[in-house]
Amino acid sequence: MLHRCNILTNLLLLLFLCHCGITRIKVALAAEEELATNSDSALPSLQVEECVVDLNGQCQNTDTSQNDKTEVLETEFASEDDDADEEDDDADEDANENDDDVWIKGRAYQIGEYLKCPWNYETDESESSLVEIHTDGTWKKFNEIYHQVVDRERSSLPPQFEGSGFQVPVEIKYMKKIGRGVFAKESIPRGQLVWKSINTAEFIRPQDYRDFLRALPQNLACDVIIWAYTRMISREQKQTFKVCVDLDEGSFVNHSRNRLRANMELGIGRLLREDEDEEITWYGCDLEFYANRDIEAGEEIRANYDEFAELHGWGKMGL
């Protein structure tokens, strides 16, 4: 009897242990399922959908998310291109404003810098305007453009270019050390009228001078900037100046820094005698130059610019 009770007790204990084990297994399985569920919700699906190919070899069921990303990138790049175009437009507007500034209130040297004018003979001769010897056709072009810019009332040029202001035979040559120059083709006696200003353009208004430069081709505008000088208008208007530029071969006469070496100088109807006491002041752009000594054939004709060019006039005119 006692033996049976022990057997029954053992069976009951075994059943209890089995029940506890099963419960633990269920709890463990439930916890594992919950972990798997949370993992699936936290991580993106790595499932790859099978591609269904159409007649063109393209997937009919391709995920459009990649295409959406591509469109976004293309939109971003297009936006960047638009920004770059806007920056270019702003730069162009700034350049146009600078152009307007130069041609409205620019000084002569600023216009020369804007035009990239060559100021010496070190540049390639094929690219430099300083070696060009102008023909009558070029002087006629100067004349025509001047009349287009300056109205008839203020014009100082004849209606058409009819010839140089030189009164003696001369030849224009280019030499590397001096650039373009004027040379006598025959002997010139002392006191002979050499050149007079019959093709000298005058600009009383500074804006007319700027407009004239703007209307010219770049090489001719650079020549004018080099040649031009300022003069007092009259004895009564000593603080008022005008721009003068000789639009013929007279502009090729080079400067002699040593006044004693200049072989032509200013005069009024004749060469003034050295012993004359009266001081003569010339006004305006109408000038005459006479040989101050005998000039030999082949000799270069030179003048002293200080006789007629009044440099402070540029500042007075805002040029």
From TrEMBL:
The SET domain, residue ranges: 168-306
GO biological process, one term: methylation
Extent of the signal sequence: 1-30
InterPro entries: SET_dom (IPR001214)
Renumbered residue ranges of the record's region Disordered: 77-99
Any Pfam family the entry gives: SET
Keywords from the named record: Methyltransferase, Signal, Transferase
A Gene Ontology molecular function term of the record: methyltransferase activity
Keyword Transferase: yes
Tree of life domain: Eukaryota
The protein's name in its UniProt record: SET methyltransferase domain containing protein
Organism this protein belongs to: Nitzschia inconspicua
